[in-house]
Each structure stands twice: as C-alpha cells, then as structure tokens.
C-alpha cells in the first residue's frame, strides 16, 4: 500500500460518536431558542444521528444521556437504532439535575443522597448491558461555591467510594471514562477539576477506568495536546468530548475556533496509535471520540456535520505529517525545521483526500452540501411540530 492508500484506509475506519443532546434545542441560562425541525424525542434524535451517519459514513453510534433519554425498554430502543442504521454508544448518567444534588451527588455529606447518586449510576451501568454498549461516560458536576463550604478531603473520599461502587457494577467488558472540568456549575472548586484528579481516581479504580478529555473544560491557554500525550503514554486516555471554545465551555462545533489545536491533538493520537509499545498503541486505538457540542441558535444537523467533518480534516492532516522527518529534525535540534514539518501538513488542502475517503465509504463527497440538497431539513420542519425535546 502507498502512503496515500494507508491514509485513506485509516480515515475510512474513523469512528466519531454523535450525541443525542446535540440534536435538541439548548442554550444558555439566559434563553433557549427553538429551531424548526428539531428532534422532539429520543427516536427523532436517533433518526438525526442516523442521517449524519448516512451522510458521513463515520458516525455509526449515538451517545445517550439519562434521564434525558430515559425509556421503558432499552433493548427495544437499541433495535430501533439498529433499524435506522446506527447503534447506541456511550451512556452518560446525570448527576446534576436533581434537587437532592444541591450540595453534591457522590460527594454529598448526606449518605442518603450519595446512595441515590450511586443507584442512578448503577441504573446506567445496567442500561449498557441492555443496549450492548461498553462505555459509561461519567461527569461528576459536584463542587462548592465558596471557600469553607466543604471539606476537600472528605468529599474526595466519598467520591472515590461512590465511583468504586459504580465501577464494580459495570458489565465485564465495559469501561468507565471519567471527565473533569475546572468550573461550572460550581465556581469555587469542582471535585474533579483537572486531568490529574481524574487520572488518580481512574488509577485507584482499576484498568477499566480511563480519563475523558472535554476540549472545553480547560482554562484558556492550557496546552491540551500535551495533556493528551501524557495520558496516552500511560494508556489512560479513554475518550474525548469534542467541541471548540473561545472562552470556557462554549460547546461550539469542532474546529470552529481553533482548528490548529484539533490538528495538534490528532497528531498526538495518530502517533500513539503507531507506538512500538503495544499497551500504548492498543489504548490509543480504543479511544472513544464523542461529540459534545450544543447548537444554540443554529440548525442541529448541519452543526453536527461540521464537527464530524472537522474531525476528519484534523486526522487527515495529522496523518500527513512526515513523522520520520519530524524526528530527524528534532534530533538535529532543528527547531524551525521541526515546526515546518508540522505546519506543512496543517496547511495542506485535504479536501481531495477526504473526497477519496467518502468515495470509498459510499457517501457524498460534500456531506453538508448533500444535506442542503436533500430536503431533509424542510421535511423535518414540516413534520416535527409541537414541543421539541429539551435537556
Ligand atoms: C459538562 C458536560 C458533560 C455533560 C455534558 C452535557 O459541561 O461537558 O459532558 O454530560 O456537558
Ligand atoms: Mn463533556
Ligand atoms: Mn462541558
């Protein structure tokens, strides 16, 4: 195989999970705008995910969030998804929308509340079994708003105990991926604020717990690709929540603000996939790439298509980097030359390459253009009347 064929092959195997809550009307705490044609229930969210997969060929799974997507019969929902051409992917518990969680969920001083939170996470672990999924995607929203409000160390012990109970309830082949976030909804401290806190929790839990990196959950200026490399090298990077940001957790579509960052992250990933250490390479190849974006004023499906195709672009450019040449220049201390190798790939127009990938996958060369021409948005606008699904 030529290098180009290798790249086409690798890109044809790309897997990007879209998320159910990316297909509904969301907003800020100031206003949620409804957009016409937006999904009204979980089946319509799955329909939209299936359409994104038909147009791109690389989005075969859809993530659910419970209770936003709660149904009576999950096995039936999984069959519905399959009939539409997609599978149900990761399941996220929700530990931030119950009144009981005002002072925390897994970290609450009140054992009754901690039990409620653990029971909910265990419910989600059981859903994994019913839908045949292998990832529990955990975000613990706990934190405090004022100095003195809580005991950091006691909260951490409760957190570890609660997570362990949840971890032990996982189906045998399933993994927990553990997200961190340095602010919001709490503004003084959050209990899993950064990758180090998440990593130490994962190490305490066991082999099947890995860190999830949400691009929006870092302070401005933080070098995310460096964090990614560090986690990759320990085999503990388990997943991504993909989006882009100008300020904080903006949840804009991928590549909208800083495509170079997405590319540099992808470069760390493709290089780890080829690592001589099988443990590092194997862990890198089993990472979950999940979109976590909110389309606040725009139509949801085009916004999702932008994210999926931006991930294809980032990986295509990362695969074009001549890594042998890069290593030579690094070894020679050629600072400018090394940067040039990386930049050459970043500046390459990969649209012809992606057209080959799409041809191989049997999908339109221009997914967004095909969507616009398909009449699918107009059909949704006409058919989906009544209250849209919210968070
Ligand atoms: C928190 C978060 C987390 C939630 C999602 C809705 O900011 O990124 O992943 O599950 O948003
Ligand atoms: Mn997230
Ligand atoms: Mn977020």
TrEMBL record:
Signal peptide segment: none
Keywords, sorted A to Z: Isomerase, Manganese, Metal-binding
Protein name: L-rhamnose isomerase / sugar isomerase
Pfam family, one: AP_endonuc_2
Source taxon at top rank: Bacteria
Keyword set includes Isomerase: yes
GO biological process: L-lyxose metabolic process; rhamnose catabolic process
GO molecular function: L-rhamnose isomerase activity; metal ion binding
Annotated transmembrane regions: none
Isomerase as UniProt keyword: yes
Ranges for region Disordered: 368-391
Start and end residues of each Xylose isomerase-like TIM barrel domain: 72-249
């Amino acid at each position: 195989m030529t290098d180009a064929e290798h790249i086409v092959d690798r890109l044809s195997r790309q897997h990007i999970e879209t998320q159910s809550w990316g297909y509904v009307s969301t907003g800020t705490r100031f206003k949620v705008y409804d957009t016409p044609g937006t999904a009204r229930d979980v089946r319509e969210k799955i329909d939209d995910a299936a359409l994104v997969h038909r147009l791109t060929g690389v989005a075969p799974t859809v993530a659910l969030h419970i209770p936003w997507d709660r149904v009576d019969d999950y096995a039936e929902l999984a069959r519905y998804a399959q009939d539409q051409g997609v599978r149900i992917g990761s399941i996220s518990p929700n530990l931030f929308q119950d009144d009981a969680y005002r002072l925390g969920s897994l970290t609450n001083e009140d054992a009754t509340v901690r039990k409620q939170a653990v029971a909910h996470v265990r419910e989600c672990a059981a859903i994994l079994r019913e839908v045949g999924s292998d990832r529990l995607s955990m975000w613990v929203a706990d934190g405090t708003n004022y100095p003195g409000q809580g005991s950091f160390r006691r909260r951490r012990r409760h957190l570890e105990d609660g997570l362990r109970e949840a971890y032990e309830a996982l189906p045998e082949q399933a993994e927990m991926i553990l997200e961190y976030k340095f602010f919001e909804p709490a503004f003084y401290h959050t209990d899993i604020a950064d990758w180090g806190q998440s990593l130490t929790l994962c190490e305490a839990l066991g082999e099947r717990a890995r860190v999830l990196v949400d691009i929006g959950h870092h302070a401005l200026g933080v070098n995310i690709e460096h964090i990614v490399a560090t986690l990759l090298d320990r085999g503990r990077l388990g997943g991504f929540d993909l989006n882009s940001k100008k300020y904080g957790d903006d949840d804009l579509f991928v590549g909208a603000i800083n495509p170079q960052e997405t590319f540099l992250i992808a470069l760390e990933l493709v290089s780890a996939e080829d690592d001589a250490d099988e443990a590092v390479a194997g862990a890198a190849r089993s990472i979950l790439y999940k979109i976590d974006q909110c389309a606040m004023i725009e139509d949801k499906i085009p916004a999702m298509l932008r994210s999926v195709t931006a991930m294809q672009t980032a990986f295509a450019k990362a695969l074009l980097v001549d890594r042998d040449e890069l290593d030579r220049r690094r070894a020679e201390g050629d600072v400018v030359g090394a940067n040039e190798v990386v930049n050459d790939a970043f500046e390459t127009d990969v649209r012809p390459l992606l057209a080959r990938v799409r041809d191989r996958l049997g999908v339109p060369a221009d997914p967004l253009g095909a969507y616009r021409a398909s009449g699918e948005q107009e059909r949704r606008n006409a058919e989906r009347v009544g209250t849209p699904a919210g968070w």
